[in-house]
Amino acid sequence: MDMIPKELYPELPVVHVTSIEKSKRLTVGYYECPVYTTTMRGGTFVFTAGLKMESEEPDAELYWILSGVGLFMQPE
């Protein structure tokens, strides 16, 4: 969902993370969100997290890419 206006760094609720085999991974309806250590981005890239989107349309992922959505492991 979209963020609240003027809230630059909203906190993500606790997320249950599991690993799966690459061959069994679903890509439709998921946004491959980059995860960084700090807000500096660039060299602090760690991995990508597959976040489930509300829509399974092929263009839905472009909305989040163009918005520059990313996750950060350290609050600021």
Ends apart, CA distance between termini: 22 Å
Characterize the overall form: globular
C-alpha Rg (nearest Å): 13 Å
Secondary structure: helix percent: 10-25%
Stretches where pLDDT is under 50 for at least 5 consecutive residues are none
| Share in β-strands | 15-25%
Average pLDDT works out at: 83
Q: Please give the order of strands in the largest beta sheet.
A: 2-1-3
Give the biggest beta sheet.
Answer: 3 strands, mixed
Task: Give the number of DSSP strands.
Answer: 3
| Structural class computed from helices and strand pairing | alpha+beta
Which sequence of SSEs, written as H and E, runs from N to C? EEHE
Separate helix tally: 1
Observed structural traits:
1 helix; 76 residues; globular; alpha+beta
Explain how this protein is built:
The chain is 11% helix and 22% strand. The chain is of the alpha+beta class and 76 residues long. It has a domain at 27-72. The chain has a three-stranded mixed beta sheet, covered by helices on one side. It is globular and about 35 Å long. The mean pLDDT is 83.
